[in-house]
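Entry 14. Ran structure prediction on the chain below.
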Amino acid sequence: MAPSATSLTFFSELDAPAFVALTARPEVRHALQASGSGVAVALVDLSADRAAALRCLEEAGIAWTAWLVLDIADGYWLGADNADLAAQRWRDVQVWAAREGLRVQAVGLDIEPPHRDAVALYATPGRTLWRLVRGRRAAADLDAAQRTYAELVQAIRATGARVETYQLPLLHDERAARSRLAQRSLGLVDVQADREVVMLYRSALAPPFGDWLIDAYGPGCEAIALGITGGGVASLDPWLGARRLDGPALTREVLRARQHTPHLYVFSLEGCVAHGTFAAACAAAVAPMPSATPASSWARLGRRVVQVALAAEPVRHRVRQALARTRGAP
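Output, structure tokens:
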């Protein structure tokens, strides 16, 4: 069982004016200080106003993480198609932080499908998934992206900052199946960092599937991200907004996740503040640990089905290699 002392980090994905307004609220700063919570801040802009707000957090002793994101046209989240842009974004952040006198102590790499594909997967899931699998990226392109991200991680570490990745749970199934089908289809990249945060967002999947995520993946997670309590990119709100976690649901998620790791993340700070769930998350992080609950048999079965499906790709690849060798034999 994980220790009761829990570290909480709240994601924030606001533009500069909204972020300044949120973090200027005394009750928000005081709650973050009292709970010892940090904030992972999506750097959707590199403005002087955002820098001023981050300096206020530093002065208040509130840790913040530089969460790297790109323009919507470039995919927004990081992945196999924009590794070079991600590296350039880090260089831009360094220049901005130095100019503004900010101390970047942690950097977050959010690895997800390109924005346009993420929206399409919610709008027309079956058709989009089939299109992505059929048009999956070449293995060589994925290898090149992986090398670029490995170099980026080393470059960030060289500044003294630590690196954390925000990954989809499907990556754990890929590793178990020794496959890269999902990575090549969705543009995910397996990046080795100082901490891997697995996004077990109950709101991301329709019931009952979202309810099983912590049971299914929690035991193998170093850190867990929970949500969604509101906020995020507006293009996904038609699907995710209706599944927003209220206070009791978020409390249950925090208590369940604490059984597996003390490192918890919540999406998002603005969602929690707007919908009155901020106090619930902080209270659940220090509440007495409940009795451990066994993983749902449906959760275990679901993961097994996914892994079997992913394992088909490396099997087919080995069969094709064997046939090619046979044809080339004298």
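The longest helix spans residues 297-328. Will compare against last week's run tomorrow.
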